[in-house]
Amino acid sequence: MTLTFIKTFKNIYLSYFKLKIFSANRFKNVLFLLIFSFLSSCSQKIVGPTLNTVIPEYLHSNEFEAQNGFILKDNDQAFASKIDIIQKAEKELRLIYYIFDLDESTAYMTNEILKKIEKDKDFSVKLLTDYQWNYKNLDFFRWLEKQQPHGIQQIEIRFYNRPSISVIKFAEFMTLGCANAKQNVENNGLDCTEEKLNYLNKYNQLSLAQAEEMMSVEAKIFLAGFYAKDPNGILFGTQLGYGRDLQTMTESPNGTPTIDEAQKQTLLKVMKLYWSAKTGSTAEKIQAKIQLSIAGLFFGKELKPFLNGVETILPFSLKNLDGSALMTHPEIAYITDYTHHKFILADTKNVQVGGRNCANAYHMHPNELEKKYIFMDTDVYLNLDQNGGALFKNTFEDLWGFSEMVATTSEIESHAPIGFLYLLNQANTLAETECSEITDPLQKAGCTGQVFSSLLDTGYSELVHSTQNEWGEKFHDYLSKYEKEYLAKIINDKHWTQLSELFDSENGFTQNTTFKNSLHSANVIPLKTQEMYYVENVPYSLSPSEVNQPKQRHFGSLYGEEIEHGKMIHKVWEDAFIAACAKSEKTNEPVEVIIHQGYFAPTESVVHQMNKLMNEKICPNVKLKIYTNSIVTTDLTPINFIGRRQLHALFQENKNFDTPKFEYFEYNKSVLDSIVVNNFPLENGVKGTGSFSLHSKVILFDDDIYIGSSNAEFRSYMMDTNNGVFLKDVPEIVASYKKTLKNLEDNNIVIDAKSSLQFRDLTQLRQQEEKDVAELRQRYAMDDRSFLKSRKAQLEYTITQLYEILDQVSVEMEQSLKRKKLKGKSKLDELLKVF
Question: Domain PLD phosphodiesterase, which positions (predicted)?
Answer without folding.
Answer: 690-716
